[in-house]
Specification:
32% of the residues lie in helices and 18% in strands. The protein has 142 residues and is α+β, with helices and mostly antiparallel strands. It has a domain of 95 residues: SMI1/KNR4-like. It has a six-stranded antiparallel β-sheet with strand order 1-2-3-4-5-6. The longest helix is centred in the N-terminal third of the chain and has 20 residues. About 15% of the residues have low confidence.
Length: 142
C-alpha cells in the first residue's frame, strides 16, 4: 500500500512540474501502475500499433531487438524501477542480451545495462526512433 501511495504522490508531483516547466517529453501514463516521466515518441507508438516487426535484427547496435507491447511498457518500467535508477529514460524493449532499449528526454534511442541501470553506461545508438527504424532489417535478419 505504501508503494502505491508513493507512486500516486510522485505522479501528482510530475503533473505539477509538467505544468510549471513544460518539459519536451514529459507525461504521465497509467497512474494506477507507473509514472512515466519520459513520453514515447508518437512515431514509435504508430510503428508498434501498425503491426510492424517488433522482434528481429537491426544493422549496427544493438544487432537484435525486442520491442515490448505498448500496454506493457509502463509496468515493465515500474518492475525495473527505471525512474529511480535511470531518471529521464523510458525503456521500451531490449536486445535479448541483458540491455534495455530506452528513449532519453531528447527522444534519442539508447542502450542501458539492465543490471545496475547506470546512466553513465548508456550508449546512444540512434538520434531518434526514425533513425533506428531505418536500420531495421525487413526480414528480421541481417
Amino acid at each position: 500500500m505504501q508503494g502505491r501511495i508513493r507512486r500516486w504522490r510522485r505522479a501528482l508531483k510530475c503533473r505539477a512540474e509538467h505544468r510549471r516547466y513544460g518539459c519536451l517529453f514529459w507525461g504521465v501514463k497509467d497512474l494506477r501502475n507507473q509514472v512515466m516521466v519520459t513520453r514515447l515518441p508518437a512515431n514509435y507508438e504508430a510503428y508498434v500499433s501498425s503491426g510492424a516487426l517488433t522482434e528481429g535484427s537491426v544493422e549496427g547496435e544493438p544487432g537484435y531487438f525486442v520491442l515490448w507491447p505498448l500496454d506493457e511498457i509502463a509496468q515493465n518500467n515500474a518492475d525495473v524501477d527505471i525512474q529511480k535508477y535511470a531518471p529521464g529514460f523510458v525503456a521500451f524493449g531490449g536486445n535479448g542480451g541483458g540491455e534495455l532499449l530506452a528513449f532519453d528526454r531528447t527522444g534519442a534511442v539508447v542502450m542501458l545495462p539492465m543490471i545496475g541501470l547506470d546512466v553513465q553506461h548508456a550508449i546512444k545508438i540512434a538520434e531518434s526512433w526514425e533513425a533506428f527504424e531505418k536500420r531495421i532489417c525487413e526480414t528480421g535478419k541481417p
